[in-house]
Amino acid sequence: MNLVERLTHDLGYPLLADHVALAAFAEQQDNSVIFLPANPQHYPETLDVAIVLPELMRIFSGRMQAGVADVNFARELAGKYNITEWPALLFLRHGAYLGSIARMRDWGVYLSKINALLAAPVPVKAPGIGIPVVGVMS
Question: May I ask which residue range the UniProt record assigns to the signal sequence (predicted)?
Answer without folding.
Answer: none
